[in-house]
Design a protein that fits this description.
There is one protein chain. The protein has helices at 2-23, 69-86, 92-95, 97-118, 124-176; strands at residues 27-32, 35-39, 44-49, 56-57, 62-66, 177-179, 184-189, 196-197, 202-207, 211-219, 231-235, 242-249, 254-255, 269-278, 288-292. The protein is of the alpha+beta class. The strands form three sheets. The chain has a six-stranded antiparallel barrel with strand order 1-10-14-12-11-15. A four-stranded antiparallel beta sheet has the order 2-9-7-4, with no helix packed on it. The longest helix has 53 residues, at 124-176. The radius of gyration is 41 Å and the shape is elongated.
């Protein structure tokens, strides 16, 4: 009889402990972060790569570069071709200088003839001839300027495709620089200086870890207890309890992941939610966490 009583006490204690453990949290899950894989955008030898796993990088920070000597030489060649083309541009002011002098002379002759006509020392025909001469010279200047302008435009049009090629090379040169896209911590390094890379080939993986996301799962009867923007308690083994904010709740039910425990472990369908938690550096991707509503 005494033996049976001891067994009953042990069973009751076990059930009580399980109930306490179950009541200690309402959902559990694992921590994750938005991971960004930074890939090369150009082909060539990696000349420099200042990246190490665990290193904290800033957005826009240049961490390395890919060999770009051929692009630089090509750019110089195009610049020389543009200079050669544009060197044929006519100097409009110099080539019309003689006509401008003729115009000034014709205008002086017209004014002199007009004064002589007022003094009855010249005829109307002489004045008309002087006025006509001014008009002729002006037309000659306009025609010359138009012709030279067309020549200049044609040369600029010939240089335009070369300018576009230089812009393309500038873009390729920018892509030879390995620029970090976000503030974060380097998780994995896939390449080393001296290796040959190509567009789309991964160089390193980075994630912002100053805040981290706990993806947990709730049963249907718990949905009424949560809403986006709500603050909840986040529990992690051997760490101080933290406060997190619910930023997303799934609208679609899914089967309970095998590695996840819910408040009611018998539930087959659950709803995922994301809780954003401030990270002092102790929380790691893949670590388990629990939520207390």
């Amino acid at each position: 009889m005494k033996k049976h009583l001891i067994i009953l006490i042990l069973v009751a204690a076990t059930l009580s402990a399980c109930n306490k453990k179950e009541a200690a949290y309402d959902a559990s899950g694992t921590f994750e972060a938005v991971e960004t894989i930074v890939s090369a955008e150009a082909s060539g030898n990696i000349k420099s790569l200042d990246v190490e796993e665990g290193q904290v990088l800033k957005a826009g920070q240049v961490v390395g570069y890919i060999d770009s000597i051929q692009l630089i030489l090509k750019k110089k060649q195009l610049q020389a071709q543009i200079s050669a083309v544009l060197s044929g541009r006519p100097d409009i002011s110099a080539q019309t200088a003689a006509l401008q002098e003729q115009l000034r002379q014709a205008e002086r002759e017209r004014d002199r003839t007009e004064n002589l006509l007022k003094a009855d020392a010249a005829t109307r025909k002489q004045l008309d001839d002087a006025v006509s001469q001014v008009a002729i010279v002006k037309k000659q200047i306009a025609a010359t300027q138009s012709s030279l302008g067309i020549t200049t435009t044609n040369l600029k049009d010939q240089a335009a495709p070369l300018q576009a090629q230089i812009q393309q090379i500038d873009d390729q040169l920018d892509k030879c620089r390995l620029t970090n896209p976000i503030d974060g911590t380097v998780l994995t390094k896939y390449a080393e200086a001296g290796e040959v890379t190509s567009p789309g080939k991964a160089v390193y993986k980075i994630a912002a870890l100053n805040t981290i996301i706990l993806r947990a799962y709730l049963t249907g009867d718990q949905l009424s207890l949560v809403k986006p923007g709500q603050q909840v308690k986040v529990l992690v083994d051997n760490m101080k309890d933290q406060t997190g904010t619910i930023e997303w709740i799934s609208n679609k039910a899914e089967f309970t992941p095998k590695t996840i425990q819910t408040k009611d472990e018998r539930a087959n369908l659950v709803y995922a939610l994301k809780v954003r938690v401030h990270n002092d550096g102790f929380l790691k991707i893949g670590m388990y966490g629990e939520i207390k509503l």
